[in-house]
Amino acid sequence: MHNFDFVKPSTIAEAVAALSHEGAQALSGGQTLIPTMKQRLAAPATLVSLTGIAEMQGVCLGDGGLHIGAATPHATVAREAKAHYPALAKLAGGIGDPAVRNKGTVGGSLANNDPAACYPSAVLASGATIVTNTRTIAADDYFQGMFTTALHDGEIITSVVFPIPEKAAYVKFDQPASRFALTGVFVAKYAGGVRVAVTGASQDGVFRWHEAEAALSANFSPAAVSGLAMESRHMIADLHGTPAYRANLVKVLTSRAVAAAG
Amino acid sequence: MTKVSMTVNGRTVSGEAEGRTLLSSFLREGLGMTGTHIGCDTSQCGACVVHVNGQAVKSCTVFVQDVAGSDVRTIEGMANADGSLSVIQQAFQDHHGLQCGFCTPGMVMSAAALLKENPTPTESEVRHYLEGNICRCTGYHNIVKAVLAASGQDVSKIAAE
Prior knowledge:
The complex is a heterodimer. By secondary structure, chain A is an alpha+beta fold.
């Protein structure tokens, strides 16, 4: 790994200032960034740790739903979101392994937008709001394809606000070696309708399955998606699964998620 | 180079570190504490698990400057004060929870984190919790048995397999 300067600010303002320098990069839990740097796929001149910023930590109820500080580790979300949004807590408790969950953060996962990460599906299915140091971004505008987001250079996610659904569930088909989702589906039922978000399947990253949303908004039952067709054209092909296999998984997991949501 | 101080197994320590110095390298090369093993160096295998402020983490995937000032516990801090093996370590010995021993420091640290969170786990909970700790020798059965025994549960009916 190439060397770099390490700074650890204690406020968002200091972090923003540190990130304005050429070659600076934000570090949250580091569970993706550090392995990436070891492979020399990233070589920042300065790393700005976001883990010492108290205002970016914690889980609490507030305006618009459940507010989660962007630097909150998955293990904390699994524990503290359980009473308010159990499906989200369960998703957080199934990421990676226990040691990874003690370090990895929601903000880090969203900023990276790995096409097989779990969190993007919860954010998109919940219609959550990404709060940054300068603005708020609706989930529907935030995800812009594999490893691509609406974030500008130097912009920091400070928190995420999840509207709490009436019912929800996330079902993940594990890729057991990486512990990422081979495919994962998050279903959330709100008074205004059902939202379905799929991760791990598409070459374009997380996406909403609108046909299933319409069918489930009319009839929230596992059978409601059985007559729908899921296109395999844009699905990921790798040694773990063909596009057709992933397209089928999307259907199967959606109906399992509806059953789990009850 | 920056001076980093922290508490390791109850002792205040300090050493020089670069930005890129990992907690695992700081422990092994900086402090000469080689009980923490580096297996894969890609955060897959869990041989490097230590506790930082009571939380199990993979020390090969943490920059030491990010945990400066923390309270760190490693395998060297697991034995009893008189040097005898702790309950978990003794259970690994009694139930042959290791063969080559390379993964054992991480297994013991993860097992300790599990039992703190969940003092009487089921077999399935032990297996699930240890999914980030890879052992290439034992086939896991005796590791799981050792952790269950360390939790005070009767393991006499669990086959060695």
